Amino acid sequence: MRPVRLSVVTAATVAALTAVPGCAEKSDAKGGDGAVGVVAKDDACEVSKKEFPAGHVRLAVENKGTKVTEVYLLFPDDRIVTERENIGPGTRATITAEVKAGDYEIACKPGMKGDGIRQKVTATGGKAAARSPEMDAAVAAYRTYVQRQADETLPKVKVFTDAVRAGDIEGAKKAYAASRIGWERTEPVAESFGDIDPKVDVREDGLEPGQKWTGWHRLEKALWQEKKLGPEATALAGTLDKDLADWVKRVGKAEITPTSMANGAKELLDEVATGKVTGEEERYSHTDLVDFKANVEGAQTSYELLKPIASKNDPALVAELDRQFASLNALLDKYRADKASYDFTPYDKVGPAQRKELSDGVNALAEPLSKLAAAVVK
């Protein structure tokens, strides 16, 4: 789930992440070297160019505000072309994306909440970004992977929601984490639609004013904290089924490019840093490590599909990514007895030193992963 409000613990984790060399890049926010400069402030989103050629575009972002921010490139209907979360105060980031000719918006979200401060921009010309056969193959394979994850999620969710409807608290608890794995593996694609994530995966502190709380985490609270199921939970179960069925139907229409795959892999690591490592995502069930593992698996799938391209352009980066993925997966394996299962240690049993070790592992992978999109389009 895209983080909306940050606790002190989360903010500290984000600050640590964005301080890692390579996550806080030395990009030119004035738009040098053909980049579109974006200066994010607490009350402004300044863009150096309102027009730029279609094809591959680089956003050179600098956060001059006092709050952690997000920067988005959006289609006119609010679908996400690309995004970068967790850009700490005083840090910079470079985002590489593929765009066709047309109108877009660049949005800065100080505090990572709300609709953001927006600027209209236009990609000009009819030239599309050049793609190699390897790029097309990677996109096709990833599209198949995303659809399969979505298709396989629905029956797992039905086991969960059927137990909720039956008033079976223990059965619902047992099915809860497994029902979320496919979503967590492919979350950037689900979030790209804009309206589905707030319905199914929002936490209570992420609600916008007037928004009704629905989805997994509302039921998580009912099961683990309120410890009761009734008519409201039954209705919520039905709504979750409906919203996720809508997601499954729309996945095949998602805009997927080689750069969106690479950026999505980095977004999944951001999800880990701001929700799973802190214990905020699954604050009632403490099943955070299941989500953590699924996020890493999704990021690694994107990477492995893009690896043949990146290997030609930046073999040193590929070697580092191989090493860091292996290291983080080995670290996660310490918290499950069976490497083939998703039966992880409850996160409330993971102490501060172990959480820091996990956070350090995420940071070590996030730094080179932030460079994958640029390596793919060299």
Features:
378 residues; alpha+beta; five-stranded mixed β-sheet; four-stranded mixed β-sheet; 13 helices; 50% helix; disordered N terminus
The percent of residues in helical segments reads 40-55%
What's the mean pLDDT score?
90
Work out the number of β strands: 9
First CA to last CA: what distance? 31 Å
- Total helical elements: 13
SSE-based structural type:
alpha+beta
- Helix-strand pattern, N to C? HEEEEEEEEEHHHHHHHHHHHH
Task: Name the beta content range.
Answer: 15-25%
Q: Give me the side-by-side strand order of the main sheet.
A: 3-9-8-5-6
Low-confidence stretches: 3-28
So what's the overall shape? globular
What does the main sheet amount to?
5 strands, mixed
Describe the protein.
With 378 residues, the protein is α+β, with helices and mostly antiparallel strands. Helix content is 50%, strand content 16%. It contains 13 helices and nine strands. A five-stranded mixed β-sheet has the order 3-9-8-5-6. Strands 2-1-4-7 form a four-stranded mixed β-sheet. The N terminus is likely disordered.
